[in-house]
Design goal:
Strands 2-1-4-7-8 form a 5-stranded parallel sheet, with helices on one face. The protein has 7 helices and 8 strands. Helices cover about 30% and strands about 15% of the residues. The chain has a single domain, classed as Rossmann fold (3-Layer(aba) Sandwich), CATH 3.40.50.1360. The longest helix has 15 residues. The structure holds the ligand O=C1O[C@H](COP(=O)(O)O)[C@@H](O)[C@H](O)[C@H]1O. The ligand O=C1O[C@H](COP(=O)(O)O)[C@@H](O)[C@H](O)[C@H]1O binds next to strand 4. Keywords: Hydrolase, Signal. GO terms for molecular function: 6-phosphogluconolactonase activity.
């Protein structure tokens, strides 16, 4: 709820500006999408926002695993936003080809910073129980350092393929917000924030955008000192 409101204020504070925003997937943003649709549908000028995703599972949009499918059902179908503002990863396409196509689409719409990196105005991330973020999983550090915009990643347990933004694009964003909820994330979150234990193994620990902020609920924050 705090982030939903802060996002509305952030958009409002930049009148007339088109903003590029990458959404996260998984379970955490579902409540955010519902709140935006329920309470902010007429309070945010959605037509000024170009939506992308930080990662997508390589499944069709109708699949329950589709990050786009979830956002469509809970948010886009309930607000007024031009279809051309929604830049989804086509999870039903060939992963390698789609990775290249999505990279080109990002480069077409998202302005580059002085180093040539696409610079999103805002990237919303989540954190998995294993410390992954976007679809950069532990021990896949090559994606943190990749010179590319996107990579095809593989989920270490399920083998599901994903298209993910790389670490350099996460770090180049003007603003990164990490949403973390639930008791199942408390131990890893404490390690990440306190830089203790296995924190360096968790990809989320390496996100280093200039303005990086975590929004956490009480259950996730239970082990923070
Ligand atoms: O697989 C994914 O996992 C992370 C975390 O998801 P959650 O279900 O624990 O909230 C998510 O940020 C990422 O976008 C998603 O594809």
């Amino acid at each position: 709820a705090a982030f939903a409101a802060d996002f509305a204020a952030w958009v409002d504070a930049q009148p007339g500006v088109t903003l590029t925003v990458a959404l996260s997937g998984g379970s955490t943003p579902k409540r955010l999408f519902e709140l935006w649709a329920d309470q902010f549908s007429d309070k945010i000028d959605w037509s000024r926002i170009e939506f992308f995703w930080g990662d997508e599972r390589c499944v069709p949009p109708e699949d329950a695993e589709s990050n786009y499918g979830v956002a469509k059902e809970l948010l886009f179908d309930r607000i007024s936003i031009p279809g051309e503002n929604i830049h989804r990863v086509k999870g039903e396409a060939s992963p390698e080809q789609e990775c290249n196509r999505y990279e080109q689409e990002i480069q077409r719409i998202v302005p580059a910073d002085r180093d040539g990196n696409p610079q999103f105005d805002l990237i919303i991330l989540g954190m998995g129980d294993d410390g992954h973020t976007a679809s950069i999983f532990p021990h896949q550090n090559e994606f943190l350092k990749s010179p590319k915009v996107c990579e095809v990643a593989t989920h270490p347990q399920s083998g599901q393929q994903r298209v993910t933004l790389t670490g350099r694009v996460l770090d180049a964003a003007k603003k990164v917000t990490v949403l973390v909820t639930g008791a199942g994330k408390a131990d890893v979150l404490a390690e990440v924030i306190n830089k203790q234990g296995a924190f360096a193994d968790y990809p989320v620990s390496h996100v280093d955008a200039e303005d990086t902020c975590f929004y956490v609920d009480q259950a996730a924050a239970a082990k923070l000192s």
